[in-house]
Amino acid sequence: MMRRATSRAPRMRTIVVVVLLGLPVPPAGIAAQQAPRGKEVYDKWCAGCHGDKGAGDGYGARFMLPRPRDFTNGVFKIRTTASGEIPTDADLRHVIDGGMPGTAMPEWKTLLNEQQRNDVVAYIKSFSTFFSSTTAKAIDVGKAPGVSDAAIADGRVIYKKLECFKCHGESARGDGTSAPTLKDDWGHPIRAADLTESWKFRGGSTVEQIYTRLRTGLDGTPMPSFTDALENKLITDEQLWHVAQYVRSLSPKESPSVREVVRAKLVTTLPAAPDDSTWNAAERYWVPVVGQIVVKPRWFAPTVDGVWVQALHDKQRLALRVTWHDPSRSPAPPWDEWLGRVSQTMSDADGALPMQQGPDRLTVEFPQALTDESQRPYFLQGSTRLPAYAWRWSSTPDSVTEGTATGFGHFTARTGAAEVAHAASFAGGEWSVQFSRAFGSTDAKALSFVQGEAIPIGFFVADGSSGEDEVRGSVSTWYAIYLDVPTPRRVYIAPVISMLLTAGLGATVVSRAQRRSRRAELSQQEA
Amino acid sequence: MRSSILCAVVFAVACGGGQEKAPTTNVGNEPGPAGANQTNTPAGNSKVSGRVSFTGTAPANPTIDMSEEAACKAKYSSPPTDPVYLVKDGRLANVFVYVKSGLPAGATYAAPEAPAKLDQNGCLYHPRVFGVMVGQKLEIDNSDPLLHNIKAVPAHNRGFNISQPSAGMKTTRTFTTEEIMVPLQCNVHSWMHAFVGVLSHPYFATTGEDGTFTIGGLPKGTYTIEAWHEKLGTQTATVTVGDNETKTADFSFKPKA
Predict the structure, then answer these.
(1) Nearest CA to CA, how far is A73 from chain B (Å)?
(2) Which long-range contacts (CB under 8 A, 24 or more apart) does A336-339 make?
(3) Which of residues 445-474 of A touch B (CB under 8 A)?
(4) In chain A, which residues have their Cβ closer than 8 Å to the Cβ of B120?
(5) What is the Cα–Cα distance from A54 to A47, expressed in whole angstroms?
(6) What is the three-state SS of A320-366?
(7) N or C end: fewer C-beta atoms under 10 angstroms in chain B?
(8) Based on the number of CB atoms within 10 Å of its own CB, is B202 exposed (0-12), middle (13-18) or buried (19 or more)?
(9) Are A246 and A160 in contact (CB under 8 A)?
């Protein structure tokens, strides 16, 4: 690596590329002399996860997946440089500034000032000798061609040709056949990205950022660079841009917004199954879920980051559909290898993981009765004092158990005939589970649904292939579900009546006034 | 076709890199040093050769499930195994043997013009264990009509991770620093592993099917020779050769306790 560090030209190019990508441009050249100042910032804010010596082994590291970066080998995922090269200062700043979506790495631009962030870049570079022995040179990514339906369709064709599906899946939800075997340079399990959730893309979700990842690869991960495929003329540059455009098109334009109240529309016929087209009429609500980190064993490496919730009712029954992405239908033999790697990696966290894959799980919780907020059960499936009413679904066997939850892992199934009907489907890395139940229940511990009130609702999801179980998994806080009330007839009649009254009254006033003025005219003439 | 693939699987090194007749030498010339264009190097005509034997019973090589890759699976008549231990008649193949120390101080060696070659065929690497010189081109070819990524995960060199989504693709890379050994892997096919030794001199070889190796073109001297196996670790021997002499350095591995 005797490339000479260089003159203005490459640096100019770097700056041009950086500007094109819309990244912040750090002040020209972060000097190694800034490193001592950077150390102060690093020791205070970064070392807890990344370790005192930058080896990615801080106290917090053992709980995390993906793990914090080990800086000692100069290997970085998010770069504008070729595969295997060190990142530019701007690349490091980009990650520090904006964080790594979908990981524990937060954004620092709001907490640290610009000089602190530059200083910490200098210090991070001091952990690896590669920063002094090699030079970072951003690749020239050029400019994106215009996006069109044809471009996206072509991108899909190239996605297949390049066999992106081997890891990312036909559905692009990170469920390819090689997905369960993936590990990073440190032997930790690593997910193939779910390309339909661009808000979690580590390097950003713009077409330019996706294209840059295709060209540079994500070093330290299984994601390779496709630059050689261009050089071998297997595909054209435009086609690679089309892949980026196709990938971008798989996610919504905006990351889903969070709304607290899920509205259940009134319909005449409830859907029979989760793939019933009736569901298309129901609005989708995104409910984010996060690792359950309150009750031990805590879980910082959840598979699922959110569920889509839809609800409908027909004045007698409530139907609920919950949909989420999970690359494995657990338990599934190919994922034994994955679980083994997760267990090994997470062995220093809160206790040993299950040795065998469990089922996938979904729990929907409600209070036992509608009360004021102070009487709402604890959001983590209630407590002995204030239990929650819950529907616990499990993939294997495909079943729902209704009952009373008194905190995580404490559940008493109700006896008697089942009241909740359900149906589940799994396809292309996506679960869809439908529940329905009559408004009323014969069980005093079960909530009765009423129209026109905000009913608290919460969720817990677990992926059995990743060591998740009854306690390890993802949880939401309380949300609410609101069953639309049928519009009363008076709503339609009242305006008509008041219009008629107003019009009648107006007419009376006008005619009376006209009569009076006519009378006045007559008396004048008489005079 | 089928027989050549089988041959490649069983005797990865013997058939590796398209060299029909190279079981006992390095990837460069035969039997001399890989570095044809030596600079500042005392010419030598001595050799160290030897045999690597294996005593005991080798663990069974894992069977590879290639059912997801019909094109690779079709290249085998019986289910392929991962050739971790290649033992035949008590001889161990795929052992990387090299001069660890003893070369004249200050000697430098130019890398050969010819690239070392690594082929991906039947969803396995050929050769599996080999050496290159610092700065020597490593040409990586894909003979399978499907996606491979080739990822180098070195400790002292810069790594790389290249996608080769189709047969006929070629990629060339070099290493800049000595390293025993740089692991190469494919993440699409997690069973695929190769190991490349990177040295600043041409005195290395990989044992073939018969467990033998020859390192030629050495100047007289006393050398530490190291034998490396991917699972069994390393062993060293010290050998002194005079001018135009051939000395023997044999190694013997046994199953890991």
Answers:
(1) 7
(2) A337/A180, A337/A181, A337/B190, A338/A179, A338/A180, A338/A181, A338/A189, A338/A465, A338/A466, A339/A465, A339/A466, A339/A467
(3) none
(4) none
(5) 7
(6) EEEEEECCCCCCCHHHHHHHHHHHHHCCCCCCCCCCCCCCCEEEEEE
(7) C
(8) buried
(9) no
Q: How far is B191 from chain A (nearest CA, A)?
A: 9
Q: Do B171 and A177 touch (CB under 8 A)?
A: no
Provide the pLDDT for residue A17: 45
Whether residues B190 and A224 touch (CB distance < 8 A) is answered with no
Q: Which residue of B68, B163, B187 is in closest CB contact with A162?
A: B163
> For residues B67, B68, B69 and B73, what is the CA-based torsion angle, rounded to 10 degrees?
0
A108: tokens are: 């620092």
DSSP codes joined into one string, A208-220: HHHHHHHHH--TT
Cα distance from A252 to chain B (closest Cα, Å)?
28
The size of the A-B interface in CB pairs under 8 A is 89
Cis before A331? omega within 30: yes
Q: Report CB contact under 8 Å: B169, A229.
A: yes
A228 chain-B contacts, CB cut-off 8 A? 162-164, 169, 171
Chain mean pLDDT for chain A? 91
Contact B165 A177 (CB under 8 A): no
Q: Scanning the structure block, which residue is given the tokens 């490396």?
A: B228
Q: What's the confidence (pLDDT) of residue A131?
A: 94
pLDDT given at position B41: 59
Strand partners, B194: B184
Contacts of A221 in chain B (CB under 8 A): 161
Kindly report whether the peptide bond that precedes residue A223 is cis, defined as omega within 30 degrees of 0: no
Closest CA to B223 of B240, B209, B235: B240
pLDDT digits (tens, 9 = 90+) for A223-245: 999 999 999 999 999 999 999 99
Question: How many Cα neighbours within 13 Å face the side chain of A240?
Answer: 27
Give the pLDDT score at A18: 43
Collapsing DSSP to helix, strand or coil, A242 comes out as helix
Distances (CA, A) of A451 to A318, A370, A391: 10, 12, 20
Q: Among residues B132, B140, B182, which one has the least CA distance to residue B157?
A: B182
- Which residues 153-172 in chain A show a CB within 8 A of chain B? 161-163, 166-167
Locate tokens 């690594």: which residue?
A: B118
Domains of chain B as residue ranges with CATH: 2-45+60-86+105-219 (2.60.40.420)
User: What's the predicted TM-score (pTM) here?
Assistant: 0.85
**Do A391 and A420 touch, CB atoms closer than 8 A?**
yes
Is residue A124 within 8 Å of A71, Cβ to Cβ? yes
Among left, alpha and beta (phi > 0; psi -120 to 50; other), residue B94 is left
Task: Report ipTM for this prediction.
Answer: 0.82
Catalogue the long-range contacts made by A413-422 (C-beta closer than 8 Å, 24 or more residues apart): A414/A443, A414/A445, A414/A446, A416/A442, A416/A443, A419/A443, A419/A446, A420/A391, A422/A391, A422/A393
Cα(B120)–Cα(B131) distance, integer angstroms: 17
CB contact under 8 A, A222 and B155: no
